[in-house]
Amino acid sequence: MIYDDFTMNKAHNLYIHVPFCMSKCNYCAFYSFACKNPDWTEYANNICKELEYWSQKLGKIQIPTIFFGGGTPSLMPVATFEKIMNCVNQNFVVDKDCEITLESNPGTIDKDKLSDFVLNGVNRLSVGVQSLNDEELKFLGRRHDVKTAINLLESAKNMNLRVSADFIYGLPNQKTKNVVNLCENINKLGLSHVSMYELTIEKNTPFGKMNLNMPDNEEMAQMYNAIPQYLSLPRYEVSNYAKTGEECHHNLNVWNGEAYIGIGKGAAGRVYLDNTWFEQRGNFECFEKISDGTRATEKILTGMRTMRGVKLSEDVKNILNFDWINSHKDLVAIDDEYLHTTDKGLLILDDIIVDIVK
Ligand code: SF4
């Protein structure tokens, strides 16, 4: 898609945050809160106010992807979603092949509701499955069981949606062989996109107050290494695996350093206006200029997490330490104007990031 820079600001991806959940999971430190009866009218009105504001500021820009994240976006009544999508369509030019993702939790959405979301534009469903073991799901504080999760994945596949599932590994007392087993069971689900997140214990969560017997660092590293060996999908980002072409376009765009707007309290964005980057947070909480150097550093931080790597654009090249890069070919490599880690480098990504920037 070619955008005319003289008449229109850059295209922006949209992230729309839905902060409500049925209850809080035991590990969750995300901005979300348990609310059985949210005021959806007020929520939709606030989201639409923000959308209108950005349309006035940036013009009727192109929207390549929209991601409804949470919280639990699948809790949203379809009428609320429809209202928000109408507002998006009135204020922006939504690409014909726009990827529209809805994050969901099993038990909050049935076949009929999913079908109504699809009629209103959703073409990708991300499902918080988290585990394929009912005991583990209970321990994590999830409200659903395995069967409900698998039914939702099947319904979505039958509707020809692009489907992704999230899983958590590294649970207390878990061993690498359990993660291998999890991967083998995930393979049987025939998914084209899977996210595998390591359980991290955050303060101010129920898990943070428990004295849990977590796997040690070595075991965690073994688990991390086992995933690409046993999962049938290739890794395209530190925690994400997909068939080629089935990657999450929204996340890839954000990781590649493209512009995006965060809508709703708890959302963050990087807005590009009048040749300047701005840090932005939803609910009008923040709009601050950031330097090109800071933005280039951010691109390196997110780009290096992807297997393709960070594009060597001028701003990125300006802050890279090529002496270090050229003398550490076992850890990093350059292909087709992208700098990426080798398999060995990926294991020490956090250290590499510090070294590759001047
Ligand atoms: S459903 Fe997701 S956002 Fe909501 S409490 Fe659980 S982990 Fe947090």
Question: What do you see in this structure?
Answer:
The protein has 13 helices and 17 strands. It has 358 residues and is α/β, with parallel strands linked by helices. It folds into two domains: 240 residues, Aldolase class I (TIM Barrel), CATH 3.20.20; 67 residues, Arc Repressor Mutant, subunit A (Orthogonal Bundle). A nine-stranded mixed β-sheet has the order 9-10-8-7-6-5-4-1-11, sandwiched between helices. The chain is globular and about 55 Å long. The chain binds iron/sulfur cluster. Iron/sulfur cluster binds next to loops.
Layout: helices, strands, pairs:
Elements: E1 13-18, E2 20-21, E3 33-34, H1 40-58, E4 62-70, H2 78-91, E5 93-104, H3 111-119, E6 124-130, H4 134-140, H5 146-158, E7 162-169, H6 176-187, E8 193-198, H7 217-230, E9 235-237, E10 240-242, H8 249-255, E11 260-263, E12 268-273, E13 276-281, E14 286-290, H9 292-303, E15 310-311, H10 314-319, H11 322-326, E16 332-335, E17 338-341, H12 343-346, H13 349-356
Parallel strand pairs: 1-4, 1-11, 2-3, 4-5, 5-6, 6-7, 7-8
Antiparallel strand pairs: 8-10, 9-10, 12-13, 13-14, 15-17, 16-17
The structure holds iron/sulfur cluster.
